[in-house]
Amino acid sequence: MGAIAQDMWLKNLIGGIWQRAQTDSALPVPNPATGERLAEVPLSSAADVDAAVRSAREAFERWREVPVTERARVMFRWRELLVSRAEELARLITTENGKTLEDARAEVWRGIEVVEFAAGMPTLMQGFVTPQVSRGIDMELVRYPVGVVAGITPFNFPMMVPMWMMPLAIAAGNSFVLKPSERTPLSAVRLVELAMEAGVPEGVLNLVHGGKETVDALLTHPGVDAVSFVGSQPAAEHVFRTAAACGKRVQALAGAKNHHIVLPDANFEGAVHAIRNSGFGSAGQRCMACSVVVAVGSVADSLVEALREAGDKMRIGNGLEEGTELGPLIRAEHRAKVMEKIEQGLAEGAVLVRDGRDAVRRLPQGFFLGPTILDRVTPEMTVAREELFAPVLSVIRAGSLEEAIGVVNRSRFGNSAVIYTESGAAARQFRETVQAGMLGINVGVPVPTAFYPFSGWKDSFYGDLHANGRDAVEFYTRKKMVTSRWFGGDR
Ligand code: NAD
Fold first, then answer.
1. Residue 287 Cβ contacting ligand 1 at under 6 Å
2. Phi and psi (nearest 5°) for 28?
3. CB of residue 470 inside a 6 A radius of ligand 1
4. What structural domains does the chain harbor?
5. Phi and psi of 361, rounded to 5°?
């Protein structure tokens, strides 16, 4: 952090050298809890992107030749450095993102888990062989890295999402150019510094700060082979279309609108606790956050009341203070948009059960919004359809499980869906018929761990192969099929 204090302009890492971006444009990076300016993030130019991609291309030619066991050892060292700096990283995440320290600590560990998974690359990259596929003929599948990978990441997980990409891509033998969120660029800088300290060679990992123009330069650069993107739906669709049109391999993870169905037979306290944490935790700024509660039958009134009480008890404040349960939103502009949507919901007929907007007046120094609950929402309303990315719950009342699943399936998004029930039959019906890629059964934030794919559906994902798990190994490698015969070796 010392370097940042001396020079508020963040630097790009290109070819192992931290250097000023070739631009005069920059954006301030405030601490969202206090408004304090932490840094200035340059909006790097196409020339910066070109330099980073060239450096990555050159480094790739050497890195691909490094034995996979040595690449794995770099992951072990990176893991040890991350573990030893876990608290520093968590505090950095909270400072630039606003989430509570508890959430930030959990995020650091989710990131470390990907490095642990990536350290298994000697096994993960294994191909396979079928001897004697025909008389005297063997067939084998061999995996190779893809080349230069660009990673473009969102503000809401400043460490975890870059870590979904960098360790797996690099351990598989690719080189990498990271374009972190311009709203939370500091954690990425630290991650990359630690990667270099762990022994990732110069040029294998590059970091270019910036915004849309920087991204577009990466998407269209002929030296980039693959693009991993995580962010909002419109940006994901743009990234997918642009990069695919330029002949690149793309995975683009997008926005969400996650529904939680509560059946009358659910464990009531368990469901309320899980929905509170999922809907209001991290200020609702998780792509797995509960946004719509679908209350089935008789449970609705008591559920709405219990959620209101749970919201009343939440301690709002600076995430760096232990005991804080709800931090700020990322920017004042984002909060203003959310407040407009709340007004729109009310104008469309929703009933305001809990108003979190009082936090704006009570905590004027940061971008706070308290837990907000809208009842009597219908699936057509804007608050039920659009991602709000805030601690706002909309409650839709349904008469049956079938009707509730119908409500979920009408959403254009399909990242996650959750059911609270004690009935195995209901849970099974939910699993079989709901159209979403990550399901929770009595689990409020059903995030798959690093060794499974993060598998959103519908407009929550563009591409074929998801982040993490074996999907990521497939995405960051390409295959050769070898068919061989040795004359005289027939049997
Ligand atoms: P965002 O789309 O504003 O930004 C994400 C990245 O894309 C940033 O690096 C940004 O610079 C870049 N970007 C933004 N607009 C662009 C454009 N028009 N063209 C090219 N690049 C662009 O997203 P955000 O607000 O930082 O993050 C929150 C969003 O990310 C939410 O919608 C959330 O649901 C989503 N998200 C999804 C997942 C998932 O796994 N599906 C995970 C985390 C976050």
1. yes
2. -75, 150
3. no
4. 12-254+460-481 (3.40.605.10), 258-441 (3.40.309.10)
5. -80, -40
- Is any atom of ligand 1 closer than 6 Å to the C-beta of 181? yes
User: Which pLDDT value is given to residue 71?
Assistant: 98
231 CA → ligand 1 middle, Å:
2
**Please, what is the average pLDDT of the chain?**
97
What is the model's pTM? Answer: 0.97
Task: Verify whether residue 287 is a known catalytic residue.
Answer: yes
Q: Does 489 have pLDDT greater than 90?
A: no
- Residue with the two structure tokens 């930030």: 104
Q: Is the pLDDT of residue 258 over 50?
A: yes
Strands 17-19 and 12-14: antiparallel
3-state SS class at 153: coil
Distance 233 CA to ligand 1 centre (A): 7
Kindly state the helix (H) or strand (E) to which residue 465 belongs, with its residue range: none
The amino acid that residue 66 corresponds to is V
pLDDT of residue 491: 64
List pLDDT tens digits, range 141-151.
999 999 999 99
Token digits of residue 178: 């990271």
DSSP annotation of 313 reads H
